[in-house]
Amino acid sequence: MNDRLHCIGALALELTPGTQAATPVLAQAEAGELAGLIGRDLAKFAIGASGLDLTVSAGLYDPVELLRPGFPLHAELSRLLALAPKRSQSQVVAFGAQEGQLPASLQPDSTHAAGPLRLIPWLLRGDPAEIAAVGADLEDVLLETGMAGADTALLVQERFAAQIEHARYLTVHDLAAMTALQYEHAGLAPLWPLIETALLRPDDEAWLDAPPEPLARYRQGAVRLAQFDADAWAAGGWVPDALETEYWPLAFERFRMRRRQFAAVLAAHGIRVDDIYCRDGGDPRAALSD
């Protein structure tokens, strides 16, 4: 994504705990109505937004579907917007469902449909100078004051058949910050720096090297994740401090479960995971550096 030409974000719907949206996608006419309201709302937060092209995918997505390297869902919105006939200086293009299905490249993944936070992605496109100004305005205000208009919130609640507690606008940076906080509460804070690097600084490198957590290294679009046998785990410094020997097998199994959890979260974010087998007698950090 070229952030000089685009500003990307989502309308975030916080569902009432224990509920799900009955309708995951909207039909084309409903999508157009929703996109018009989103455009109006965004113009209230950044006046220049009304002069930019807006496109919206009228489906409900999980944060992991938006927060992937290269932001592929928004990149697809940009590609489809570029294909749409240009009928005015600024236009609103909505993608809705035909026979209950969005275009295949935009269809939400049912695997992630049960989360409490549902996202409707939007993208603004225009002149680089205008995008820079609007993007700066939205970054400044949305996280704190970006509540959707009352009619927008009512529309999404009725059309998606969802019990919604809050409907607010976020940029992707806001979404990343919110997700980082959620991961911290879920005990996944050690993993977030690798995900953040893959999303926002993909050419950089990041390590997770904090025993007894799994050992991992992000580089060039993939995470290399060390895989130990029991002997290498015990010899390499991953045994929790002061743990009695009789409890080592249980601790090793917990370590393996934690590693599988990390691998699953990375995969959900579209980050490739390469297993690097490390055996007793070798330096696992050197193995991940090869």
Short description:
The chain has 290 residues and is of the alpha+beta class.
- Rg over alpha carbons: 22 Å
User: In one word, what is the shape?
Assistant: elongated
How many beta strands in the DSSP annotation? 9
Percentage of residues in DSSP E strands: 15-25%
Quote the average pLDDT.
Answer: 93
State the end-to-end distance. Answer: 30 Å
Helix content: 40-55%
- Derived structural class: alpha+beta
> Low-confidence runs (pLDDT<50, min 5 residues)?
none
Query: Helical segment tally?
Result: 10
What attributes characterize this protein structure?
9 strands; 290 residues; 20% strand; four-stranded mixed sheet; alpha+beta; elongated; 41% helix; single chain; five-stranded mixed sheet; 10 helices
In terms of topology, how is this protein built?
Blueprint: E1 6-15, H1 28-45, E2 53-57, H2 63-66, H3 72-83, E3 92-95, E4 117-125, H4 128-145, H5 150-159, E5 164-171, H6 172-185, H7 192-200, E6 206-208, E7 216-219, E8 222-228, H8 230-235, H9 248-268, E9 272-278, H10 284-289
Parallel strand pairs: 2-3, 8-9
Antiparallel strand pairs: 1-4, 1-5, 2-4, 6-7, 7-8
Helix pairs in contact: 1-5
